[in-house]
Amino acid sequence: MRAYLDNAATTRLDPAVLEAMLPLMTEDFGNPSSIHAHGRKVRTVIERARKTVATLLHTSPAEIFFTSGGTEADNTAIRSSIETYGLKHAITSPLEHHAVLHTLEHLASRGIIKLSLVEVDEKGRLNLAHLEELLRTHPDTLVSLMHGNNEIGNLLDLETVGNLCREHNAVFHSDTVQTMGHYRHDLQQLPVDFIVGSAHKFHGPKGVGFLYANANTKSGRGPIHPFVHGGPQERNMRGGTENVYGIVGLAKALEIAYAEMDQHRQYIESLKVRMIDQLRGKLDGVAFNGCSDDLTQSLYTVLNVSLPSSEMSDMLLFNLDIAGISASGGSACTSGSNLGSHVLSALPGNDADRGAIRFSFSKYNTPEEVDYVVNTLVELFQREQEAVK
Asked: How remote is the C-alpha of 289 from its chain's centroid?
């Protein structure tokens, strides 16, 4: 059997999404910036996709900008807001995706901003009292905190954090890559200035994403300047010919995700619960990182497992791969490196000697796959114990 449980890294393309994309690869191939009939037709398709995304998120199409993915969208929100508004300080956490953390660290190293990190506890929960203290000390700042952590699955209360930011006139950006298409975002109600999406995280194509940029920001500032220059595309916000079939695929994938969200959440959550229960029942010493085993505080798609200390800890992913199981030791952006997980390293009291694996689920996984993964892990540890004897 083969089991793909690395859906936080990327998801399988939905066949209906591919079907929607194909005409834009073959028949409707015009450049959307061209004024002739071929171009006008494709321009209409892009704007229809933009309207679909905006309608699902309860916002205006004028506030949705298509990008090459979540990383570009995060960079645009962070760098352009700092430049446009003249911000000199930023607040984030040590648990952020590198698209955010590395960007802010780079700007701090250049002296463009000063950077503060919110304290976290052993479960990866943010100290909101510390955040409020930082906001009081630095009232005119950028706050960038992710909605759902891609490694340990922790969920952030966007409304609480957003309201804190509004009280202190701070600009609030949230990396919502892991929650987009899995949770509903009502941008008429949510006190956030920037959120992002990446199509391949919700069964769309790779290489396309979007940025929601509030036209005036919740803190009363105007629109940001563009990050990518070179042309008038995306309402002068992002230069470069649009990835038309990617944009169409993104909109279709998000449409499907919203239509089937409740049904899929119930199903995927049952797979996660099944794995938690079986691991606890069959493997002594198993633990769960962050809040990933708490269904009320974590992504229903992510489970981060700490396995008993073992000589094969460094080989766990390799052994699972041999058994046909695809999982991750953390973010896919650091796969293949020996740097370990910066998220787990940032958790106070984390035991670096324990092997940690992130399993992440989708609508295409099955209970049989979960059973196979758990039984494989049990067999690996039994084999090691027998070898020691």
From this structure: 18
- Among 219, 60, 226, smallest CA distance to 143 is for 219
Place of tokens 């952030």: 156
CA–CA–CA angle 24, 180, 264 (5° rounding): 95
CB 82 within 8 A of CB 104: no
291 is catalytic: no
Q: Which is the catalytic residue, given 333, 367, 375, 383? A: 333
In angstroms, the CA 183 to CA 202 distance is: 11
Residue spans of beta strands (DSSP E) within the chain: 3-4, 64-67, 89-92, 114-117, 142-144, 171-174, 194-198, 209-213, 287-288, 302-306, 325-326, 356-360
pLDDT along the chain (389 residues), means of 10: 97 98 94 91 96 98 97 98 96 97 98 97 97 94 98 98 96 98 97 97 98 78 90 92 97 98 98 98 93 97 88 78 90 54 89 82 98 95 68
Environment class of 337 (CB within 10 Å of its CB; exposed 0-12, middle 13-18, buried 19+):
exposed
